[in-house]
């Protein structure tokens, strides 16, 4: 069957963000930033304090990093050598759940069991040495309320975690107690950071002029160094939880997807840009074109990447997912639909970056910087990188010449070690 040309054109139009709309989104993002600095309750950005500025790049010593962002836990022993140099001396990684063997994330487990398991990994990372003193930095990627660098209290579990006895508790206290139970009193947890903050710290340790860190993958979030130029406070990295930015005009399919999602009315930007949702939106559009509205084909962002990259495989991918043979002239349309969604995603993410760049610049010019980005969409999705650069030029004109993006994909561990080193200042 051939696609309805009019319907196809309408879908492309719905997923296209023009220059004027892009500029408006960037301005609204900056407005929400300024609002959030005065009163976070009035902004759709969370403006969470990290209690850290940027590393000097001269941090040295041996530190432990706990990367706790999902079911796979990692503990690393990292040697910082200054001048952006570092070495991973030991890495231990284990899942918190192995089907049929153990499960520390289910409702039947306890906080004590979970953190005892983590303490065992720490012991392995230090080779059972209970003498040498270690500071531990902790990348903890769950919604937390933080009052200083050490003190992060879990607000609510996400990502299918249900371990009782952790919500409402300071996670470093639970870790400290578990380390003590196992006689590991030489390891001192000193810092908790979000994974996006870790990306910024890791990149800024390695090179100068980095003030924005972002994760652009299955999910999406950005943090930045707020200069506090007007108040005279010391600059601090703020975690925006920018996936929750709401001042956007969603398309008809975005609205439909949101209404049927687990959390309707939340994470609007994330639902329009991240890898987790892109394939779903593409699938919804394909279902309309194939006159099977409402059918879920299970397209992923990896399918979209393959569709954009390999014209000769498009018909095969569509057939495998939908059971439909598509007309030869529609192959190009399928590629265009996937490309349009990726381009929209990159443009919206860039508008949020530009909102931050305008905030940093005040009434002056954009400062020279490399935006540090971690994540599979940025790293692997065709059209993402170049459309970030295009949108920067569109919004910043000549000033875009001093701004580019860099990949930072080892941030969670290195960033945590750097935070531990900075905790001693």
Automatic annotation (TrEMBL):
One of its GO terms (cellular component) is cytosol. It comes from the Bacteria. The keyword Plastid does not apply. Pathway: Carbohydrate metabolism; Carbohydrate degradation. InterPro entries: ATPase_NBD (IPR043129), Hexokinase (IPR001312), Hexokinase_C (IPR022673), Hexokinase_N (IPR022672). It holds the Pfam family Hexokinase_2. Keywords: ATP-binding, Glycolysis, Kinase, Nucleotide-binding, Transferase. It catalyses: D-fructose + ATP = D-fructose 6-phosphate + ADP + H(+). GO terms for molecular function: ATP binding; D-glucose binding; fructokinase activity; glucokinase activity. Residues 9-205 form the Hexokinase N-terminal domain. GO terms for biological process: glucose metabolic process; glycolytic process; intracellular glucose homeostasis. The keyword Transferase applies. Residues 212-422 form the Hexokinase C-terminal domain. PANTHER family: HEXOKINASE, HEXOKINASE TYPE 1-RELATED. Belongs to the hexokinase family. This is Hexokinase. The lineage of its organism: Bacteria, Bacillati, Bacillota, Negativicutes, Selenomonadales.
């Amino acid at each position: 069957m051939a696609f309805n040309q009019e319907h196809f054109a309408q879908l492309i139009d719905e997923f296209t963000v023009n220059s004027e709309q892009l500029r408006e989104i960037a301005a609204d993002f900056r407005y929400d930033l300024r609002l959030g600095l005065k009163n976070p309750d009035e902004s759709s950005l969370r403006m969470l304090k990290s209690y850290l500025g940027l590393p000097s790049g001269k941090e040295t010593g041996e530190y432990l990093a706990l990367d706790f962002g999902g079911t796979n836990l990692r503990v690393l022993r990292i040697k910082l050598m200054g001048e952006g140099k570092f070495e991973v001396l030991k890495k231990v990684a284990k899942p918190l759940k192995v089907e049929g063997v153990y499960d520390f994330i289910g409702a039947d487990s306890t906080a004590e069991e979970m953190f005892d398991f983590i303490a065992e990994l720490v012991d392995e990372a230090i080779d059972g040495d209970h003498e040498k003193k270690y500071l531990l930095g902790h990348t903890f990627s769950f919604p937390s309320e933080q009052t200083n660098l050490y003190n992060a209290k879990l607000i609510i579990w996400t990502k299918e975690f249900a371990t009782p006895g952790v919500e409402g508790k300071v996670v470093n206290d639970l870790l400290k107690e578990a380390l003590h139970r196992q006689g590991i009193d030489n390891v001192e947890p000193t810092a908790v950071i979000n994974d996006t903050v870790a990306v910024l710290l890791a990149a800024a340790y390695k090179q100068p002029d980095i003030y924005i860190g972002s994760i652009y993958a299955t999910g999406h979030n950005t943090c930045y160094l707020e200069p506090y130029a007007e108040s005279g406070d010391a600059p601090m990295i703020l975690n925006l939880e920018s996936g929750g930015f709401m001042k956007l005009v969603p398309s008809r399919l975005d609205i439909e997807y949101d209404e049927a999602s687990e959390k309707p009315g939340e994470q609007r930007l994330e639902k329009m840009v991240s890898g987790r949702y892109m394939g779903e939106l593409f699938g919804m559009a394909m279902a309309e074109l194939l006159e099977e509205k409402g059918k879920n084909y299970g397209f992923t962002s990896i399918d979209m990447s393959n569709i954009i990259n390999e014209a000769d495989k498009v018909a095969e991918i569509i057939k495998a997912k939908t059971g439909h043979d598509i007309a030869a002239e529609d192959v190009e349309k399928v590629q265009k639909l996937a490309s349009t969604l990726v381009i929209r995603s990159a443009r919206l993410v860039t508008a949020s970056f530009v909102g931050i760049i305008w905030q940093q610049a005040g009434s002056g010019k954009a400062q020279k910087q490399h935006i540090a980005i971690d994540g599979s969409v940025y790293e692997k999705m065709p059209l993402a990188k170049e459309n970030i650069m295009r949108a920067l030029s569109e919004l910043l004109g000549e000033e875009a010449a001093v701004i580019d993006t860099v990949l930072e994909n080892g941030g969670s561990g290195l960033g945590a070690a750097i935070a531990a080193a900075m905790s001693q200042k």
